[in-house]
Design goal:
Chain A: Keywords: Signal. The complex is a heterodimer of chains A (515) and B (560). With 515 residues, chain A is α/β, with parallel strands linked by helices. In chain A, helix 4 crosses helix 15. The chains are: A alpha/beta (515), B mainly alpha (560).
Chain lengths: 515, 560
């Protein structure tokens, strides 16, 4: 068996000498790369919020023109939002009064109206652009295992809807687009310590975070990652034990599972101390008033009994702490990163039952946490402590799938496909809907639905959505695009060849402001 | 002289009186060493397993091997007992053990605590281990059962206790009966919305029933997503593509065929209405008025009877899925992954799946026969895995198994009278992302197809929850257990004097037992070097250092 570059890197990371060796290694990780900081020479981060279980996004963006709204209510007499549960929004270029958001998302609505948030409509996993006839014909152009939670979470995370039939190599198939973007963005990060992971995850989908070469820092949702010691600061015995443990990891008895375990262990041991130190030091560089204000943003305003089980705002607070550590220059004891990707997630969106009661609570939590994060980043952008490396952040949502427009017999909805995603940030071209909102007419042609229950065939693909964000982070060549999103070129070529609408013929969706 | 001791024990346990057996007290002359090697091999059969083989068997079939520590005769569940009676007989004994005290949903003790106490101390180890594996296939999470104010008990706890008892009861039973019991179980009924799944709205108009249970039953409990060969590999079409095991139309058909069940109550509700008070102590109740009696097309062109009633349709639906050719490989492979190895060869899956198809008496789905086939298979047995498979063999110990194996090797006394040691063990497992019985979703704690990081084409299910955070938690669990009073405070007291004191003796002991003879020279050297370092300045610290390093070593973390 020949030693590939990747295997070499993997082995290199397993020895104690890794840090010393890494500094001397040529940066061939990005061979033929062209990732640049041209968009912004400071720190940029993308934050993935995974709504686990399949968010019913038919209820986060609701058409209010008379016909469509009547179709909406007819399909979902129980779970559909009534007029007094909705507030109108004013997306650019659309007639007044045509769309509304639920009152449970009132803070997000304010960001939308202020131009800081947008919806990307009817986006979902696709291999090639699909008509209803294509879908019914089946075959390998239809995503594999539609409507299955695990497979569709993987499809969103990997941006590969056809892992079974795709010809990409198997090492690509087990990774995610966040991790593969990190493989190519790595060259932009000259951090201390070197090779600090680009991706940090507090939750969400692990697959999204895994690159072929770059592996994520996975952290408990409360933000801690540290090895226990007997003494504080560590005693001589602790230092002996830690060094011996690192040594023991190199003993793998010729078994690849042992190697895999040791690899994860070594990443944790190598970077956990650096991360903890940078988080504390970088945070201390911010004025006390700034820190207090940010912490205040994350204190829920609802009564504690309503928020005790919330988990999203605590994860996003930890993202703030890690992005401060990442963006703070090395000269101020930060990590000095230029590009980072974060992953968070929260669940219970699988509302087969009692959706009218349960989904509003989930949306309230989402609304609060997104707002706290957005306000924090806005404040951080102006902090002088970052010097020229002040952070910019774009937050975006993913979810297993949308749900059936037609409710079931249980005051709930079942698994569907294309749905509406949220993007939020000061670099988002907001107050707009991107893509095409589906027809809700279940008595009509059903051209846009797989069946009579209202499961939308996506009209934008996850790859277009993801490539827009990855480009904003600094990727730009076709080689980078085809590495991170292997199906995208074929998708666009097919859309062009078969005369699909303009939006299907573009690699990107226009929801980010031009640099 | 490890091998000689092993051999002596084996022979003495099984054939001391046989003429060809070497006396336990005789050392063979050097020129017979090779003969000894062959004799040892010959002795290491399922009926007369060697020490390493027996330890491996207990790693696969229990929550951790134990030593008899001089107790005679050696208790059930100890290495010495397996060596004495052999593996087939050990299995027979375990199959005969009935479930110990049932889980109690109305006790103050947390169910996770109850689980870990049974795992660490129970005699019915194999039954619990198989039930635990089944609980990760037929998933119900305590976090998915909301509390209603309508019952006089804690809904989630009573529901899960009943469910865990069900899995214990059927662990060695008939898969078809297990499937029906699960389908009608109230905890599952709530978790995947089988309860109150009506085919009519309140006005009596037909509606689409909730698809949740139907879909997950097909995808996760019986078929998987792709059609399979008997050896568990995908059954490809003429173009070399995978084929779906079921269609969307079939999901809907099963949802209709299984519609109409509700909570146990005095009487059925009217058409379109629901029973709103859950009953987590009794199976779901059939209410034909809420059932769609029309004919449905199930798998393989089989139809339910037109106009059939709710019970008939359930029987037809479950018979149909039970007889699908995907079920034997799909279930057999996952059980192998939980007990023995993440990447079994197709031949191993096929041998076990064939027993699932037919246990030798013509019965399909005999789980006892399946478990025996898994654990007696040549791919599972021997002092070490088969040489050709060694580089990819085994599985990462899941957090729960890591915790229980550590505890059972250290053999502490547990103060269950005044403390709650089980809860402490459960919380440690939780810190590593396995919070029993509270899987984060119906996909359990980790998926059976999670890729093994860095190795193309192999899976490592438990690696699905191994990351920098949880691997740190593995180290921190052990650190807290060994170096603080946390264990003692929770009523877990280890007598470290049970372990050898001299550095070399302790390392040899750890290699012989905990690593069942696979201590690599490099690891041995590193353990001895660390223990010999002057910074490990007390006898107890040297000892704990060796335990910490060995338990966290790749060779221990991967159960091989």
């Amino acid at each position: 068996m020949t030693t590939t570059r990747r295997q070499f890197l993997r082995r290199a990371t397993q020895g104690l000498g890794f840090l010393a060796a890494a500094a001397a290694l040529p940066r061939w990780v990005g061979n033929a790369h062209a990732a640049t900081l041209n968009g912004y020479s400071g720190s940029r981060v993308a934050v993935c919020v995974f709504l686990l279980g399949g968010n019913d996004s038919n209820n986060i963006l609701v058409p209010r023109d008379t016909n469509a709204y009547a179709q909406y209510l007819a399909a979902r007499p129980t779970v559909g939002l009534k007029a007094d549960q909705l507030d109108l929004i004013n997306p650019t270029d659309l007639p007044a009064g045509s769309f509304a958001m639920p009152k449970t998302l009132s803070r997000l609505r304010a960001h939308f109206e202020a131009g800081r948030a947008a919806f990307v409509c009817n986006v979902g996993p696709l291999v090639l652009p699909l008509t209803k006839a294509d879908y019914l014909a089946g075959g390998t152009s239809v995503p594999e295992n539609l409507f299955s939670h695990s497979d569709q979470q993987d499809a969103w995370s990997s941006a590969l809807a056809n892992p079974g039939s795709s010809t990409v190599t198997s090492d690509i198939k087990v990774t995610g687009w966040g991790g593969r973007a990190a493989d190519r963005l790595h060259v932009l990060n000259t951090s201390t310590p070197p090779d600090y992971p680009e991706v940090t995850s507090f939750g969400g989908k692990a697959r999204f975070c895994a690159g072929v070469e770059r592996k994520p820092m996975m952290v408990a949702p409360d933000g801690t990652l540290a090895f226990r010691t007997v003494g504080t600061p560590p005693s001589d015995f602790d230092l002996l034990q830690q060094a011996a443990l690192a040594d023991v990891m190199a003993e793998q008895d010729g078994n690849v599972l042992e190697t895999a375990y040791a690899g994860v262990f070594t990443t944790a041991q190598t970077f956990s101390a650096a991360r903890a130190a940078a988080r504390d030091a970088a945070w201390a560089q911010l004025p006390q008033a700034t820190r207090d204000t940010i912490e205040g943003y994350f204190v829920p305003t609802l009564p504690p009994e309503d928020t005790a089980k919330w988990t999203l705002h605590t994860q996003l607070y930890q993202v703030v702490r890690d992005l401060v550590a990442g963006a703070m220059p090395v000269s101020k004891a930060g990590l000095g990163l230029k590009r980072q990707v974060f992953s968070v997630g929260f669940g219970s969106f699988d509302t087969h039952q009692n959706e009218d009661v349960d989904q509003p609570k989930l949306l309230e939590q989402l609304d609060f946490a997104l707002d706290a994060f957005q306000k924090s980043v806005t404040l951080l952008e102006t902090q002088t402590a970052f010097g020229s490396n002040a952070p910019q952040a774009t937050l975006f949502t993913m979810s297993d799938f949308n749900r059936t427009l037609l409710e079931n017999g249980d005051s709930g909805t079942d698994h569907a496909w294309g749905g509406h995603a949220i993007v939020l940030g000061n670099r988002v071209a907001g107050k707009a809907l991107y893509g095409t909102f589906p027809s809700l007419d279940l008595a009509g042609s059903l051209d846009g639905s797989t069946d009579e229950r209202g499961r939308w065939i996506p009209t934008l693909t996850v790859e277009q959505y993801g490539w827009t964000l990855a480009s904003w982070l600094g990727l730009n060549t076709a080689a980078e695009r085809d590495y991170v999103f292997p199906n995208l070129a074929g998708y666009v070529a097919d859309a062009v060849a078969r005369g699909f609408p303009a939006q299907a013929r573009k690699y990107k969706v226009g929801f980010m402001l031009a640099d | 002289m490890l091998r000689r001791t092993t051999l002596a024990l084996v022979l003495c346990a099984t054939s001391c009186t046989q003429a060809e057996g070497l006396s336990a007290t005789e050392s063979p002359p050097p020129d017979q060493q090779e003969v000894l090697g062959r004799a040892e091999q010959a002795a290491d059969t399922p009926e007369t397993p060697g020490e390493a083989n027996s330890i491996r068997f207990l790693e696969q079939s229990s929550f951790g091997p134990r030593l008899a520590r001089g107790v005679a005769p050696a208790p059930v569940g100890t290495v010495e007992h397996v060596m004495a009676v052999g593996i087939p007989q050990s299995l027979t004994e375990q199959f005969a053990l009935q479930p110990a005290t049932p889980y109690d949903g109305e006790s103050a003790q947390d169910l996770g605590s109850q689980f870990f106490l049974r795992a660490v101390t129970g005699e019915d180890q194999l039954r619990q281990r198989v039930a635990f594996a089944l609980s990760q296939i037929f998933v119900v999470s305590m976090n998915g059962i909301p509390d209603s104010a309508r019952t006089p008990y804690v809904d989630s706890k009573v529901a899960l206790a009943g469910y865990m008892n069900l899995l214990s009861q059927y662990a060695f039973g008939d898969f078809r009966e297990l499937l029906e019991a699960v389908t009608k179980n109230p905890a599952m009924g709530r978790y995947l919305d089988m309860a109150n799944n009506r085919a009519f709205d309140s006005k009596g108009n037909p509606i689409d029933p909730n698809e949740n249970y139907a879909r997950e039953m097909l995808q996760l409990f019986t078929l998987g997503t792709d059609k399979l060969n008997i050896d568990g590999t995908p059954l490809l079409d003429a173009d070399g593509h995978r084929q779906r095991a079921y269609s969307e139309e079939q999901v809907k058909a099963f949802a209709h065929a299984l519609s109409g069940w509700t909570w146990n109550a005095a009487a059925c509700p009217a058409r379109g209405a629901a029973i709103n008070t859950p009953d987590y102590k009794n199976p779901l109740m059939a209410c034909n008025d809420n059932h769609d009696t029309t004919r449905q097309e199930l798998l393989r062109g089989v139809f339910t009877a037109a106009g059939g009633n709710i019970n008939t349709h359930l029987t037809q639906a479950l018979n149909n899925v039970f007889n699908d050719p995907n079920v034997p490989p799909f279930i057999s492979k996952q059980l192998i992954q939980h007990l023995v190895t993440s990447n079994p060869t197709p031949g191993y899956v096929r041998r076990v799946a064939n027993v699932f198809k037919n246990d030798g008496t013509g019965a399909r789905g005999n789980l006892q026969a399946v478990v025996r086939a898994i654990l007696e298979d040549s791919e599972a047995r021997g002092a070490q895995p088969p040489l050709s498979l060694r580089s990819g063999f085994g599985h990462l110990r899941s957090p729960a198994l890591f915790v229980t194996n550590v505890v059972r090797w250290l053999d502490p006394t547990l103060d269950t009278a005044t403390k709650d040691p089980g809860l402490k063990l459960s919380n440690w497992s939780k810190s590593m992302n396995q919070w029993v019985p509270r899987a984060p979703s119906v996909f359990s704690y980790y998926p059976p197809n999670a890729p093994l990081p860095g190795v193309d084409g192999l899976v490592g299910p438990e690696f699905g929850i191994l990351d920098t955070a949880t691997i740190t938690a593995r180290a921190n669990f052990l650190h807290e257990f060994l170096y603080t009073s946390a264990a003692t405070n929770a009523g877990i007291t280890v007598d470290y004097d049970l372990l050898p004191s001299a550095n070399a003796d302790l390392v040899a002991y750890l290699g012989r037992y905990w690593l069942h003879g696979t201590l690599a020279p490099g690891l041995e050297q590193k353990l001895l070097m660390a223990m010999g370092d002057s910074r490990a300045n007390t006898a107890i610290r040297k000892k704990k250092l060796a335990l910490y390093l060995t338990f966290l070593s790749p060779s221990f973390q991967i159960q091989r």
